[in-house]
Amino acid sequence: MLHSQTTGVRSWLTSGELWVWMNAAAVGISITAVGGLLALIAVRGLAHFWPADIAEIHHLADGGTPAIAWGEMIETETLDIDQYRSATGDTSGITGDPASVTRWLVKTGNRRLDPPDFQWIYEHRIDHIEYPEAVAVFERMEWGNAYGTLQAVLENGEPVVRGEGVWPEFNTRLARVESLRAEIAEIERGEFNAINYELEQLRLDRRRLDLRKDLDSAELAEAQADIDSREDALQARYEIAEQALRELLDERARDSAEILFSNGAVLHIDLAEIVRAWLPNQMSLWQKLGHYASSVWLFLTEDPREANTEGGIFPAIFGTVLMVLLMSVLVTPLGVIAAVYLREYAKQGPFVRLIRIAVNNLAGVPSIVYGVFGLGFFVYFIGGNLDRLFFEAALPAPTFGTPGLVWASLTLALLTVPVVVVSTEEGLTRIPRSIREGSLALGATKAETLFKVVLPIASPSILTGIILAVARAAGEVAPLMLVGVVKLAPTLPLDGNFPYLHLERKFMHLGFHIYDVGFQSPNVEAARPLVYATALLLVLIIIALNLTAIMLRTRLENRYRGVES
Length: 565
Fold this sequence. Notes:
Layout: H1 2-14, H2 17-46, E1 55-60, E2 66-80, H3 81-88, E3 100-107, E4 118-122, E5 126-130, E6 135-140, E7 145-155, E8 158-162, H4 166-211, H5 217-252, E9 255-260, E10 266-270, E11 274-278, H6 285-301, E12 304-305, E13 310-311, H7 314-345, H8 350-362, H9 367-390, H10 405-429, H11 433-441, H12 446-475, H13 480-483, H14 510-520, H15 524-559
Antiparallel strand pairs: 1-2, 1-5, 2-3, 3-4, 6-7, 6-11, 7-8, 7-9, 9-10, 12-13
Helix pairs in contact: 2-15, 4-5, 7-10, 7-12, 9-10, 10-12, 11-12, 12-15, 14-15
C-alpha cells in the first residue's frame, strides 16, 4: 500500500503537473499583487476629489485653551503613551492609564491666515464635533482651500448682499469672474503669445541682417525698414491687447467676498482668487457625485498651481503622451532596420554574434547612463552644432543646444531600441524560409520580398517590441531630468505658432511630476493624494497605449495566422 502511494506521488511529480500548479499559483499571486497595488493607488488618489463633510471640532489647543477648528477629517493615527509624552510633554485630559492615544489629521486650510493647513488633534482633547451646514469650502488660486462661512458679497468694497440671498449672488458673480478669467487666459496665451513669438522672430531677423556681409547699405536699409514697419504693427497690436487685458483685470477685481473663519477673523477675499466654492454639509449624494466628476475633470484639464500641489496636470499628460508617440516613431525604424540587417543581410558569424550580445547588454544599462549620453551627445554636440549652423542669430541663447522634447524622445528611443531589435529578430526568425524562396521564385526582388512579404508577416512581433518599449519609456524619469523635462513648462510644445510642433521646447512629464510633488513639495500632506492620483493616471495611460498596440497586433496576427511555422 505504501509502495503504491509512493509510486503515485513519484509519478505525479515526474508528470510535471506540480510545476503547472506552481506556475498557476505564481501567476495568481502576481495578478493579486498588481491588482492590490492599483486598488491602493486608486483609493488613495481618487478619494482626494470627494467633497468630504466639514467638521466643527470643539477641542483644547496645546495651551489648554478652548478652540474651534473647521476642516476635513483626513485620517487617524494611534500613538503609544510614551510617544505621546515625548511629542507633547503633556498628559492632561487622559483618564485612567491608557496604553495608546488616538489623534486625527484635520485639513483646516486657511494657510495664509492660520498656518499650517493640516493639524493633528488628539481625540481625548475633543469635546464634541458638529457638522454645521453654513460652513463652505473655498478653493483658491493660491494658499490652498479656505474653510469659512460666507457673510456678504461686496462690489468695490461695498456690501451688495448679506444674509439669506448671499449664495445665489455669490455664485452669479463667481460665474462672471470665471468667464472673465477665461477671456484673460485667451488674451495671454493667444494674442500675447503670438505677438511675443513674432517679435522674437523679428529680433532674430534683425540679428541675421547684422551678420550678413553681402548686403550693400541700400539693401540693408530697405530690409531694416521692413522689419521696423512690421515691429510697429506688432507693437500697435500689443497695445490694443494690453488695454483690453487691463480692462478685464479691472473688471475682474470688482467683486469680493466677506468670509468668517473659525477663529473669529473676518477677511475680504477677491473673487478673482477663488476657483470655486461649495457647501459640502448641504450636498446630497447625487450633488457630491457631480462635484466629484467635476473635480476629476478639472484635475485632468487644468494647469498646476501652488508648486504643483494644487490644480491639474494637463501639461504633464500632454507632454508624456507626445513624448511617447515621438519616441515610438523614432525607435520603430531604428529597431526594425537593425533587426532586418542582422537577420536578412548580414553574414552570420562571430562579428554578428558579438553585435547581438552588445544589443542584449544595452538593455541592462542603467537609464541614467542614457541620460548622460543624451545630454553630452544629442544636446551639447548635435544641438550645439545645429545652433552654430542654422540658428547663429539666436546665439548665445541656445535653440537646440539645450534639453528639449526631441532630445528626450531620441534618448528614450536609444534606451528602448534593444527591445525592438530582439522582438523583431524573433519575428523574422519564425518566418519559414520557404515563404522567402517562394516569393523570389515568383519573380519578386529581395527588397519586394522584404517589404511586401516578410515585414508584414513579422509585424505582430514588431508591435510586441513597440509595446514593451512604450511601457518602459513612459515610466522613465532619471534620463528625462537631464534631457528635457522640467518642473513647470511655460508653454506646451504644440501651439498655433509656426511650425506648430516645437521640438526644441522643454516639457512636463507625469513621472517627473510624481517625483517632484512627492519629494520636492513644501506641503507634504497636501501633495500626498496628488502623488497617488498622478501615479494612477500614468499607469492608465500606459495601459491605454499598450492596449491600442495590442489590438493592432491581434488584428495582424489574425490576418497572418497560419503563415508562420
